Amino acid sequence: MSDKIDELQEQIEAESIESEEEAEAFRIQYLGRNQGAIPGLFDQIGDLSPEERPEFGKRVNALKDRAQERLDEAKARLQREEQAGGPDIDRTLPGRRGFRGSTHPLTQTLDEILRILRGLGFSTYEGPEIETDWHNFTALNFPPDHPARDMQDTFFLKDAPTKEPTVLRTHTSPGQIRIMENHAPPVRVAVPGRVYRNEAISYKSFCLFHQVELLYVDEGVTMAQLKQVLYSLARALFGEDVTLRFRPSYFPFTEPSAEVDVWWDDDDAEDGGQWMEILGCGMVHPNVFDAADVDPELYTGYAVGMGVERMAMLRHGIDDIRIFYENDARFLDQF
Ligand code: DAH
């Protein structure tokens, strides 16, 4: 008798239930009131001795529960499959990916530059894009007749929000003045942002681009420290074996001033590569300190201005600045 229970147990476990019809057949075969195998076992209980009955009853009940459980599970699974579009789904197919956007390549380069600078102790400040002529030029020691003030380069605002002459900032350097106006030294800060120039548009210049300005002012700041921070930045951006070249240059707001080039390997070039200018820099001019009410007898400082587009073009081998502003998905999807 108990062999019969074991046998049925095995049979129930081995049964496959893959459709509503098979589920119903399973129910009738094992649990059916009239001819089901398990109710049939209950009918045989009268043949047993009174001592055997409790144990037998318990085992048949357990078997019944197990059969019911298999049936319920199978029905639930079939219903899920039907909702999911029928049982013949290929479960080995990869799932559908959700659409994932990405940041613009300029944003990526800018974020990377600011991340490196944070590690070098620079905090971040953002100044206004509409700037007074005074912050953009005068305070930065531009003589009144300096060509950079020329209509050619600068977008002047006709309906200035203030009485002062107002421009779209032509560089992030006015950020230097705004920081020093509001914070006594020491300051060590990076100023990222958009700048605007009224220039002929070509593969290498656009009417808008991005710069990051650096300013470090404290007692005893030296040009050696400036070189050190630029090497650290360049190594982190372009690799450990990067080669830089410092060229003497002129900017009204720094003295001495330099432009910095990075050596770019190029197997097609005659000398195996070329120097690419990446930034301007120098020691803050005393007149700039005066304009911002910082004592030039007590403090020295360095300043740097770099172009973000230029950096991104070097990193990714891009040869036309305009592509950053065209929103062409075929370009953007690569980043
Ligand atoms: N503002 C300059 C420009 O846009 C770049 C620059 C040069 C910034 C030298 C500096 C600097 O801070 O020291 O051309």
Give the key terms.
alpha+beta; BirA Bifunctional Protein, domain 2; two-stranded antiparallel ribbon; 9 strands
How are the secondary structure elements laid out?
Layout: H1 2-14, H2 20-31, H3 37-43, H4 53-83, H5 105-119, E1 123-124, E2 130-132, H6 133-136, E3 166-168, H7 174-182, E4 187-196, E5 208-218, H8 223-238, E6 244-251, E7 254-265, E8 273-284, H9 286-291, E9 300-307, H10 308-316, H11 329-332
Parallel strand pairs: 1-4
Antiparallel strand pairs: 2-3, 4-5, 5-9, 6-7, 7-8, 8-9
Helix pairs in contact: 1-4, 2-4, 5-10
The structure holds 3,4-dihydroxyphenylalanine.
Residues 171, 173, 213, 251, 254, 257, 280-282, 303-305 line the site of 3,4-dihydroxyphenylalanine.
Write a concise synopsis of the structure shown.
With 335 residues, this protein is an alpha+beta fold.
Descriptive overview:
The protein has 335 residues and is an alpha+beta fold. The chain has two domains: 2-84; 105-332, Bira Bifunctional Protein, Domain 2 (BirA Bifunctional Protein, domain 2, 2-Layer Sandwich). It has eleven helices and nine strands. A seven-stranded mixed beta sheet has the order 1-4-5-9-8-7-6, sandwiched between helices. Strand 6 (244-251) and strand 7 (254-265) form a beta hairpin. Helix 2 (20-31) runs antiparallel to helix 4 (53-83). Residues 171, 173, 213, 251, 254, 257, 280-282, 303-305 line the site of 3,4-dihydroxyphenylalanine. 3,4-dihydroxyphenylalanine binds at residues 171, 173, 213, 251, 254, 257, 280-282, 303-305.
The hetero molecules present are: 3,4-dihydroxyphenylalanine
The oligomeric state of the chains shown is single chain
What is the helix fraction of residues, given as a range? 25-40%
Extended strand count = 9
Question: Can you give the mean pLDDT?
Answer: 92
Q: Give the distance, in angstroms, between the N- and C-terminal Cα atoms.
A: 72 Å
Name the beta content range: 15-25%
Radius of gyration: 39 Å
CATH C-level category of the largest domain: Alpha Beta
The count of domains is 2
The assigned structural class equals: alpha+beta
Q: What would you give as the CATH superfamily of the largest domain?
A: Bira Bifunctional Protein, Domain 2
CATH topology of the largest domain: BirA Bifunctional Protein, domain 2
* Strand line-up in the sheet with most strands: 1-4-5-9-8-7-6
Which descriptor suits the 3D outline?
rod-shaped
Q: Main sheet? A: 7 strands, mixed
Question: What's the architecture of the largest domain in CATH terms?
Answer: 2-Layer Sandwich
Poorly predicted runs: none
Task: Count the DSSP helices.
Answer: 11
